[in-house]
Amino acid sequence: MTIRNPNVLIKRGNLRAHVCDLPRTSGSNLPKLPPNARFYSRWKRNLQKLVLVSIRHPLTSSVFRSQTAVAFEKKRHSKSSHRWMIHPFSMLRFYWDTIMTIIFLYIFVTVPHIMCFYRIGKSSSPERWNIVYPTYAICIIDIFLNFITGFISPDGHEIFLDTTLIARRYVKGYFFVDLISSVPYTWFYPTLILPPGPDSNSALLILEFLPILKLIRMPTVRRNIQQINASCGIPQAQHITIWLVILTLLIFHWSSCVSYIFPYIVMHIQGKTMKVRVSNLIGSNFVEFDSFGNLDTILRCILLLLGKGYIIYLIVTIFQLLESSAKPKLKYQRIMHEVKEYIHQNKLPLYLQDKLIFYYKYRYQDNFFKENIISDTLSDHLNQETLFHSNQRLLDIMILHNLPRNVLGDLTTLQKM
Hints:
By secondary structure, the chain is mainly alpha-helical. Helices cover about 60% and strands about 0% of the residues. Among the domains are: about 35-225, no CATH class; about 370-415, no CATH class. A two-stranded antiparallel ribbon has the order 1-2. α5 (about 90-120) crosses α10 (about 220-230). The two termini are about 30 Å apart. GO terms for molecular function: voltage-gated potassium channel activity. It comes from Temnothorax curvispinosus. InterPro entries: cNMP-bd_dom_sf (IPR018490), K/Na_HCN_channel (IPR051413).
């Protein structure tokens, strides 16, 4: 058992410590309140903290690469005329995006289900929509918050908090989709949908289909899920798996709704009864059906093509995940193959062959990586910490105990070279 010198352990701890030049404050860059401040003043300050950029937001580190940049952005935001605008990387926005992710997924499931299986399939009353009305209210609040939330430039180098620019961008984007898909249209005609025939009022269903336009927000849902996974520390491969599971379940649900509703739509259009059949999403033939109309055939073909296309998408995505995880090992095997070819061409002796192969195994540990590119990307402080960790025995030498950090860093760098 090796007994470590306490001075050596203290020296190592000092070498690993990072001395931050930023002043120790609350981190909000807001003026301090007096101890006897009123409740309203404290509530106002806490609310303003929520709208400022936060280092806890999953995407903050991708735009602001240091604590200094985050502190500067907080100072710029808090002292500007738009200090009450919501920063896109604030915790308030992150919490709200999480809520909206749940709301969107809830709408993606309930709205097609109610429309297909109740309003059209069973001509049920509008009371079925009561479970969706609260989500419409939340969507209206989301529209308001989108008008007061900043956005990042396409190149990712600037945050815009100007109200005019935000409104212009939102109106050109998702505003009208969010608006027309967040209105409870059945409030204006609380009537039953009559069966197919001359007195049918099925044209009213057109307005009830408008909330399905929320599906256009699918990229927003994926981005929000990615943020949630990043905040939970979930790796990229597992994030893609979670997203594929969610997307697959939604597609199965939507395809069942379309398969069920299609004959009823034909009934309303043609005004006559029609045998209801079940179409397959991923079936490869239709031998089990005796006869079917042209419209039914077209629907089956569309669902078949979409299902096959989605299966191809799943297979390609899974292969990409497997390839990315095995990429370092494949590169290492390629390098080892080149080393063995080099040994064979130069006819090296057996002892030298073993030394070369052992060196490459020790050097890369069965995974190839470009150390120079990695070290060039790291900061000087991180490079020094890495070198100190790789040369821990260097600190055990008594003559080096009192050397400053920069001298030890130069020694380890020269030793590596």
